[in-house]
Structure formats: C-alpha cells, structure tokens
Design brief:
- 31% of the residues lie in helices and 26% in strands.
- The chain has 188 residues and is of the alpha/beta class.
- Helix 4 crosses helix 5.
- The protein starts with a strand and ends with a helix.
C-alpha cells in the first residue's frame, strides 16, 4: 500500500522508514502548509488533509516537538521554529543557557509526536517520551533537540543512543507504531 508521507525532513523520513519496516510504502513529498494550529494534533491534521486533497490518496503527516516544564512548556508546537534559521547546535545552547540555574529535579521535559493518517477522515496517534534536559549537549546521533534530552530511566541523551535504541523508545516510534497497527487492521 502506497501512502504519502507529508514531510521534507530527511531525518524524519529516515526514522519513519526504520520504525515502519512493513509492507506499507511511505513516499515522502513536500507540501508548504502553514503550521498555525494551537496543538500538535491540529498541525498534523492540517498537513495530512492538505496532502490528501492534493494527492487523492491516503497520507500521513506528523507534528512533534519538545516541551520543557521549567520553561512553561516551551518550545511545544514552535520547536522547529524556535530561533528559525539557526542550527540546532545554537538552539540547544540557547536552551541550556536559559536553564543554567534550573535544578536537576526541575529539568523535566518530554518529546511529543502526533502522527495522522488521513484517508478522508483523520486518524490521530500520539507518542510521548518523558525525560529531562541535560546540562550540556552530548552525542552525534539523532537530530534536533536529541543532544540535550535524556529519556527517563537512561543516563544518555537521545543523541548518544544508537538509531535502533532511539527508534524503539522515541515519541515518533510510539506514534508511528500505533499508526502502523491501525493500518494493519484495515481491510486492503
């Protein structure tokens, strides 16, 4: 089954293909959609609906980001647009600077991902991974805010984990595994 994956993010495409090792063929395609929703779900549904209306076949889109409790839930839906145009190394450094006086027990955070399968109707799947913000950037794997996020029960950042380890516990893995289970349940 061929499904449009509405994204141009090469890292996201790679993760989804590693997570979804199934008979479903996710075909990446770029669509310019203004992400003006108030939630990850609203943005993901908007992107998936837009792609579906243009391609006339089922589509998948997601929206994801990091929420940092000590910063009032920032960055949330603005994660990708935080310090727009700057490399993630600088974005991560800025977050660490903003949190320099935050105590260990107050450094809680989570990554969230909402994946949407749209076939004329949105089918919404959410994934969350709890953790905390590190004191420094560590690791070269992954992308985005992975070098500063330590998953709960782990002593390494997401960027220090192997792709296989990350893709077994990540927010995107949780959301897309639910989505794939749903797809497997459909009569084809």
């Amino acid at each position: 089954m061929k499904i449009i994956l509405a994204t141009s993010n090469a890292h996201k495409i790679k993760e989804v293909s590693q997570i979804s090792k199934t008979s479903f063929e996710f075909v990446p395609k770029t669509f310019e959609v203004e992400e003006d929703g108030k939630t990850f779900s609203e943005n993901a549904v908007k992107k998936a609906r837009f792609a579906y209306e243009h391609e006339k076949i089922p589509t998948v889109a997601d929206d994801s980001g990091i929420e940092i409790d000590a910063l009032g839930g920032l960055l949330g839906i603005r994660s990708a647009r935080f310090m727009k145009g700057k490399p993630y190394k600088e974005k991560n450094a800025k977050i660490l600077e903003m949190m320099k006086d935050v105590l260990e027990e107050k450094r809680t955070a989570r990554f969230k991902c909402v994946a949407v399968y749209f076939d004329g109707t949105p089918h919404v799947f959410e994934g969350v991974i709890e953790g905390k913000i590190a004191y420094e950037q560590r690791g070269e794997n992954g992308f985005g805010y992975d070098p500063i996020f330590i998953p709960q029960g782990c002593d390494k950042t997401m960027a220090q984990l192997s792709s296989e380890a990350k893709n077994s516990i990540s927010h995107r893995a949780h959301a897309f595994k639910k989505l794939i289970e749903y797809l497997k349940s459909l009569p084809i």
